[in-house]
Specification:
Elements lengths: L34 H22 L7 E4 L2 E5 L9 H12 L4 E7 L4 E6 L6 H15 L20 H22 L7 H12 L1 H10 L3 H19 L3 H32 L2 H4 L16 H24 L1 H9 L4 H20 L3 E2 L13 E5 L4 E12 L5 H11 L9 E3 L2 E5 L11 H9 L3 E7 L2 E12 L5 H9 L2 E6 L1 H6 L5 E4 L4 H10 L4 E5 L2 H6 L2 E5 L12 E4 L3 H37 L7 H23 L20 H7 L9 H6 L14 H9 L4 H13 L3 H34 L4 E6 L2 E6 L8 E4 L8 E13 L10 E2 L16 E2 L4 E13 L5 H11 L6 H29 L4 H14 L5 H18 L2 E3 L4 H5 L4 E5 L5 E11 L4 E3 L8 H9 L13 H13 L10 E7 L7 E8 L2 E8 L1 H4 L3 E6 L2 E4 L2 H16 L3 E10 L12 E13 L3 H10 L3 E5 L4 H11 L8 E3 H5 L3 H8 L4 E3 L3 H13 L4 E5 L5 H6 L2 E5 L5 H6 ...
């Protein structure tokens, strides 16, 4: 056939004459030298069609973009080297035209920007002038230098429009060829043209014939589309059309971003002008993974086709060669890049060269220009007032004079002067130490002087570019080598880099040097020349500066945007790798079709597999791009010294006032979810995530294999099973997680905030910087705030700074370097201890002091879980499935079964080997356990925490509130010489308690007072029957000084025995120095220095034993009023000892945990003696407790620490820092650690642990936010319940695996056995899917979600990943596999001798399902969900078999009583055999081989370890 066009009817299209479209003969073998001539005819014909279609659509050869007053007109050749002369001539020609205000050539975009004014010249005249200059200049376009395609081109380019038109024409041509009686072109034609387009070397050769690779890039895809149309193909055309639609959307989004930014980019002559790019790359770009795969696979396909030509014939050999087409590898990359370009455009990124988005996976080096990491603005970060200066006044003047835009210039106001320190009057040497501290911190030092003398020294740092910290993290995640380009001092400032290279004027040379070493370089900079030299230039620019023309992507000033691009580079590698995997799978399926399909259907069947893989890759690439985080949350906010600022400056900086923010401002500052994520989980996203499990690729491969051998219905059935399983799992997950989210929201922290002039209560998550919040005693601080009003305001900051005493707060500026000393600030995670106040929010989320630490801990969180174990099991099952499939196919071939049928059986067997419901079962078990825990007071933030709980082998817990009651109780009292516990008081000690009661606020109920110590005294006095007076002499209160943290005592005065008696109770360090006498049984006596020391030693002894000590003193007063001056000349009466009592349930709980094999470590800040005493109480085994102090641990290295912790029960005097080190050491030696905590300073340790547990009643918001699990009642028993649920989940996984994997292995064994005997498997693919549907979904799910039985709790504690997924699981899988094979084989054998082959297969199906369901009943017992699901599966099986039509669809035949009897008998006998063998070998949960006893519900019960 010399001309396919002559066999087509005369179809008239505008400008297109099909009969003149000549195609050359397709030779049997193609030599590289013949490629240009071979492709030239067809390509030129396609180019002619393209050109005439473009003319018919009205598209011009010269691109023009216009806006009022300005035109961007394409200039051919100006972007190539040597275009400077042409650019100058174009500018001169246009500048001389009437109405042209100015004209500047922007060479990187290939455009001249022309500003026009009245009288405006016609656009046609401007274009004609440019064309005339091009003709006279004589610059020949370089075929190896493609014309640029800037974003102003938009989607309606000649190339885009003609490609879309070609796709439409190709589809129409395909339909015409299929419908009308035309002779189709051979299918190999389209594959050949596509191969030339994809193969790098052949593409280059074709480009030589078409005068440039860029022309080959345009023409070859169009030629491939037309060739497919002539062959009657349509899938490849649709795939090409989908790519064009994505590219259209990308170009449209880029045009919108350009239109918005154009006035800033090219609005003036200076901004619009840009020279041509610099010299060429020193060496060619190294191939990426896709390029290497393209060359390798196409050459392999050609060799394979040539090798099979003589054996299988021309059609099969050609089909085999075309099966190697790697369309999926290219389509996946294109889908990802197009979607990424659309996303970046929405972020304001201007893509001057969208081609770099198609090369992201090839990048391996990231260079950061130090100049782009900071701005010219300064930030006042610290201030040191010199002695004699008023700190508040100095701070007010410093901030009022400081100009961030001119930080190094002298500023004057009245008598104050701020400028460089060297220009200020010299100091007298005072404050030198603090000044040196500022100098060592780096930056610029300024001096603040008044009246000719230096008053303060100010440190100014360069303002970091926003988002700077996101870049190193993104480079690490993307796996890029990170270099910083700059001067010598920059290497110290940016020490996070892997290395440093020269910057400044040498930056472009540094880039070329890296490229000459073979690197693909991404550069973040504002240097146009260096950006143009880079392989991916990310141009940083600010609105006030000209754009860095030469950059491939103009990213703006926010460095989180280039960080997103870098992160996208890492994802591009993943997309490339997975697209290559899909391409390989498509080639494999295509190769199978080449050998199994009838020759008449070739190469269509082969190309169908290749195109299906490409479609999946395209969709996968789009989805992956959509999964990129919209914005990574910054962990390092610019250093803003809010504590130094006057209140007026703070409010002005935040654009707010004391009445609060308006609704409009709040909407603009709307808080984003951390990490740029979404607040809730919707069904589509959950559905996709359910599909993302290790088993889906295996199932998809099985479906593809079925389709490749012609079983499209089987493939659709497999796809339906995959989708149904994922949909059910997604629905269950969404429902449960929403319920859990609702429960968690009830414990959310709230704040009283002023908005629109009114006060309202909002959730802490809704706060934004600038919100004004009011506080009262007991309120939790929801964000970092600057105090603007304070009335006796004191906060408990122990959770952040470790400071045990409340800290007084002020609204005045405070000069302090340490966080603990910044008394003008309130920090998230702290609480208000006393007073009232108003503060303005300055930081939220991860930008707070505690949030930054939590975010860093979050990056180090270890990853592990049941998914990893399932992945290993899946990888182990794949070789088994493949070998069994090969065995079945081989047996069939040996017995003369056709290859198509044998391959189909093998594909079905591969599908049958996959337990489809396993990933869903794991999710269902976790979610069900999370729901049950929520009902018992444990809120699980992430249901996947459940499986981690089952792996815990070390539990680190705090003493207070967990082992103890969490509330102070009066333990005893004494007078310094005698001491007695509360229940053993004698007459001489009771007056001490009466005096303490008088010094306590009166209340009808102890719960009414706020201080724990007062509640303990009131409760203890009631238990001991002590009152404030006696029966004959009552005591009546007259006045009081209430307790305040700064005061340290509570004092009352009342009338007693006719006198005014002052009673004082408080901290010994406050009371004892005010005592001059002490009370003895014989009367009062002087308290000399020796007596005072003896008393102090007694009190210290009790305090060292973990008791809280209060001193009690009295004296007489002349009046009924009391003031602070009256608290002196006191008589020491005695002391009270308070303690936190150990819970009665603590000892049994700890014993159960240890029986489960969990090592417990009590971590406390108490004295070692106190810690050991409490540990001895809770340890009932009589073994001495192994106690170590944190100080001793500090002397050990990490290895020695891990070894010591393995032999430690108690760590005393422990700080939050020690907790982090303990957890790291335990994890380093392979332990799975659970950590409890309640303070914000515990948050990093909680986040770092494998399972972080926050105590809900006392826990701070920071601790709860960091935790995986929130225990609302703070009880150790609840923690044990969570461990049981975790172990029960592993038990459910064990049973599910044994049912699913064992059952599927039984199916494999039965199929291999029957194939070996008859050449064909007794069960077809649809029947195998039906088996999995009936046995894997509902029954196994019922096993997974059942609640653990009360009488099996102790046995469940012995479950875990090692015992559940170890030898016990192996034995159970083997037993179930054998049982399943036995039941199915028995039924099939009996049925073979009593009926037909189809009837025997049906009986085998019923026997196999019955055997598996019988084993499920054995495991599930009388659980209602198990019974219902089993009955439903049996009913569905009966309906399928007995319903005509449906029975035939599954390859069955209706059974009579005999058939059902055989099936039931086989299943029952096999199940009973299973039970007998199980009892014989004793497969107990702990795997020690002991016999198991099954109760009446079939639940395995084992004694505790």
């Amino acid at each position: 056939m010399t001309s396919l066009g002559h066999r087509l009817p005369r179809v008239h299209l505008p400008g297109i004459n099909l009969p003149r479209l000549h195609l050359p003969n397709l030779p049997a073998a193609v030599s590289p030298g013949a490629v240009p001539d071979l492709v030239a005819g067809f390509s030129r014909g396609a180019e002619s069609v393209v050109f005439r279609a473009a003319q018919a659509a009205g598209l011009k050869r010269r691109a023009v973009w216009s806006r009022p007053g300005r035109h961007h007109i394409e200039v051919h050749g100006v972007a190539q080297p040597g275009g400077e002369r042409l650019a100058a001539q174009v500018e001169r020609a246009l500048d001389g035209m009437p109405g042209v205000l100015w004209a500047r050539v922007n060479a990187p975009s290939g455009r001249v920007v022309v500003a026009v004014g009245p009288p405006e010249p016609r656009l046609r005249e401007l274009v004609a002038a440019i064309a005339a200059v091009e003709r006279t200049d004589g610059l020949e376009p370089d075929p190896d230098c493609p014309e640029p395609h800037p974003p102003e081109e938009g989607p309606r380019t000649r190339s885009a429009m003609t490609r879309i038109a070609t796709d439409a024409f190709g589809l129409g041509l395909s339909a015409a060829v299929r419908i009308l009686p035309f002779t189709r072109a051979p299918g190999e034609l389209a594959g050949f043209v596509r191969a030339v387009d994809l193969h790098p070397r052949l593409h280059s050769l074709a480009g030589r014939g078409l005068r440039g690779d860029h022309r080959a890039d345009s023409v070859l895809p169009l030629a491939a589309v037309l060739a497919q149309g002539l062959t009657g193909g349509w899938a490849g055309i649709l795939l090409d059309g989908a790519q064009r639609v994505l590219q259209w959307g990308e170009a449209r989004a880029q045009l919108a971003a350009w239109e918005e930014a154009e006035p800033l980019l090219a609005g003036t002559p200076e901004r619009a002008s840009a020279p041509p790019p610099p010299d060429e790359r020193p060496r060619g770009k190294p191939d990426g993974p896709v390029e290497r795969y393209l060359a390798r696979v196409l050459e392999s396909g050609t060799i394979a086709g040539a090798a099979t030509l003589s054996l299988a014939g021309r059609k099969r050999a050609a089909a085999l060669a075309l099966a190697s087409l790697p369309s999926a590898a290219v389509a996946g990359r294109e889908g990802y890049a197009a979607r990424l370009g659309w996303l970046l455009a929405r972020r304001g990124v201007i893509a001057m060269d969208r081609g770099v988005l198609r090369e992201l996976e090839r990048l391996d080096v990231l260079v950061l220009d130090a100049a782009a990491l900071r701005s010219a603005r300064g930030v006042l970060t610290d201030l040191v007032p010199l002695p004699g200066s008023d700190a508040e006044r100095v701070a007010v003047q410093a901030f009022s004079l400081f100009d961030p835009d001119r930080p190094d210039q002298v500023q004057n106001s009245d008598s104050w002067r701020l400028g460089p320190l060297d220009a200020m009057p010299a100091s007298d040497g005072s404050g030198t130490e603090e000044v040196e501290r500022l100098r060592s911190a780096g930056g610029t030092l300024l001096g603040l002087a008044t009246d000719g003398s230096l008053a303060a020294v100010v440190r100014v740092a360069a303002e970091p570019a926003p988002g700077i910290d996101a870049l190193p993290a993104a480079a690490r995640r993307a796996g890029l080598r990170l270099l910083v380009a700059g001067e010598e001092e920059d290497s110290q400032r940016y020490d996070f880099a892997d290395g440093h290279v020269p910057g400044g004027s040498r930056l472009a040379g540094s880039i070329r040097s890296l490229q000459s070493e073979g690197a693909m370089v991404a550069l973040v900079s504002g240097d146009p020349r260096a950006l143009a030299a880079a392989d991916c230039g990310l141009g940083v620019w600010r609105p006030e500066d000209p754009a860095p023309w030469g950059a491939h992507l103009l990213v703006g000033a926010d460095l989180s945007v280039p960080a997103l691009v870098i992160e996208a580079a890492g994802m591009a590698r993943t997309v490339a790798r997975q697209s290559i995997a899909l391409a390989t799978a498509g080639s494999g399926l295509g190769a199978l079709a080449a050998f199994t399909a009838p020759p008449a259907q070739l190469p269509a069947r082969t190309m169908a597999a290749v195109n299906a893989a490409a479609g999946l890759a395209l969709g996968h690439g789009v989805w992956r791009a959509g999964r990129l985080p919209e914005r990574r949350t910054s962990h390092t906010a610019p250093p803003t010294p809010w504590h130094l600022m006057p209140v007026e400056t703070v409010l002005a900086r935040l654009d707010t006032d004391q009445a609060g923010l308006s609704t409009e401002k709040i909407d603009r500052r709307g808080r984003r979810p951390a990490g740029g994520g979404v607040d809730g989980l919707d069904l589509p996203r959950a559905f996709v995530e359910e599909l993302a499990n290790p088993l889906t690729p295996v199932l998809a491969a099985g479906a593809g294999l079925s389709a490749a051998v012609g079983s499209v219905a089987d493939a659709a059935l497999v796809g339906g099973v995959i989708g149904l399983t994922a949909l059910i799992g997604a629905g269950h997950r969404v429902s449960t997680e929403r319920s859990l989210a609702e429960l968690l929201s009830r414990s959310a922290v709230t704040a009283r905030v002023r908005r629109d002039g009114t006060e309202r209560v909002v959730a802490a998550d809704e706060l934004v910087p600038g919100d004004v919040v009011a506080f009262e005693p007991g309120d939790a601080i929801p964000a970092d705030c600057r105090v603007i009003e304070a009335v006796g305001l004191e906060t408990d900051e122990s959770s952040v700074t470790g400071e045990s005493l409340p800290v007084a707060k002020t609204s005045h500026p405070v000069v302090a370097a340490a966080v603990a000393d910044r008394r003008s600030m309130l920090y998230e995670g702290t609480t208000v201890a006393a007073g009232r106040g108003v503060a303005v929010v300055v930081a939220t989320g991860v930008d707070t002091e505690i949030g930054r630490g939590m975010a860093l801990a979050g990056e180090a969180t270890p990853t592990s879980g049941v998914e990893a174990r399932l992945g290993r099991l899946t990888r182990m099952s794949i070789p088994l499935a493949a070998s069994s499939a090969v065995a079945v196919a081989g047996a069939g071939l040996l017995r003369g079964v056709p290859l198509v049928e044998s391959a189909g059986t093998a594909a079905n067997l591969a599908v049958a080997s996959v337990p489809e419901g396993l990933p869903f079962l794991v999710s269902a078990a976790q979610l069900a356990a999370a729901r049950r825990l929520a009902e018992h007071g444990a809120l699980v933030r992430n249901p996947r925490t459940i499986e981690a709980l089952g792996r815990v082998d070390v539990l680190c817990f705090d003493k207070t509130g967990t082992l103890t009651e969490g509330r102070l109780m009066l333990a005893g009292l004494g007078d310094g010489e005698r001491y007695a516990e509360l229940d053993a008081l004698d007459k001489g000690l009771r007056p001490i308690l009466a005096a303490a009661l008088r010094a306590t606020p009166a209340a009808d109920r102890p719960e009414e007072v706020s201080q724990q110590t007062d509640r303990a005294v009131l409760t203890g006095a009631r238990q001991a029957g002590v009152d404030t007076g006696t029966r004959t002499h009552a005591w009546h209160q007259a006045d009081a000084l209430p307790f305040e943290a700064s005061r340290g005592y509570h004092a009352t005065v009342g009338r007693y025995r006719g006198k005014f008696l002052l009673s004082v109770k408080g901290a010994p360090e406050t009371i004892l120095p005010r005592c001059t006498r002490r009370r003895d049984p014989g009367g009062d006596r002087e308290l000399d220095e020796a007596g005072g020391r003896a008393l102090q030693e007694t009190l210290d002894r009790h305090a060292g034993a973990g008791q809280r000590v209060l001193a009690v003193a009295e004296r007489e007063l002349p009046t009924d009023t009391v003031g602070e001056d009256d608290i002196g000349d006191l008589t020491f009466v005695g002391f009270l000892a308070l303690s936190d009592g150990v819970r009665a349930s603590a000892a049994p709980a700890v014993r159960r945990i240890r029986q489960a094999g969990v090592h417990t470590i009590m971590i406390t800040g108490d004295h070692p003696a106190t810690a050991e005493a409490i540990a001895a109480i809770i340890s009932t085994d009589g073994v001495a407790q192994r106690v170590v102090t944190a100080t001793e641990l500090d002397q050990l290295d990490d290895d020695a620490l891990a070894e010591r912790l393995a032999r430690t029960d108690v760590v005393a005097r422990c700080t939050p820092t020690h907790k982090v080190r303990i957890i790291r050491a335990l994890q380093k030696c392979g332990r799975t650690v659970a950590m409890t905590g309640d303070g914000a300073n515990d948050a990093p340790a909680i986040r770092l642990a494998d399972v972080g547990i926050a105590l809900g009643q006392r826990g701070t918001p920071a601790a709860r936010a960091a935790a995986d699990l929130v225990v609302t009642d703070d009880r150790l028993e609840t923690i044990i319940a969570t461990l049981i649920e975790g172990r029960a989940m592993w038990s459910s996984v064990r049973h599910a695996l044994s049912i699913l994997v064992g059952g599927n292995l039984g199916e494999i064994a039965f199929s291999v056995l029957t194939a070996a005997l008859t050449g064909r498997s007794a069960l077809n693919g649809r029947q195998m899917l039906l088996v999995n549907l009936l046995t894997d979904l509902a029954p196994a799910m019922a096993i997974a979600i059942r609640a653990p039985r009360e009488d099996s709790m102790d046995s469940l504690l012995t479950e875990g990943p090692e015992t559940s997924l170890g030898a016990t699981l192996t034995r159970e899988i083997a037993l179930r596999a054998g049982t399943t094979t036995l039941g199915a084989t028995t039924g099939w054998t009996l049925a073979r001798y009593t009926g037909t082959r189809r009837r025997a297969g049906t009986v085998a199906l019923a026997s196999l399902v019955g055997t598996q369901l019988g084993q499920t009943l054995i495991d599930g017992g009388l659980s209602p969900s198990v019974l219902v699901s089993t009955a439903a599966s049996v009913a569905l099986l009966a309906a399928v078999i007995q319903t005509p039509g449906l029975s035939q669809f599954f390859g069955c035949t209706p059974l009579g009583p005999v058939g059902w009897g055989i099936a039931a008998g086989s299943a029952i006998s096999a199940t009973l055999t299973n039970t007998a063998v199980d009892r014989l070998i004793g497969t107990s949960p702990d795997g020690d081989g002991r016999p198991t006893d099954r109760d009446d519900e079939g639940t395995t019960a084992a004694s505790p370890a």
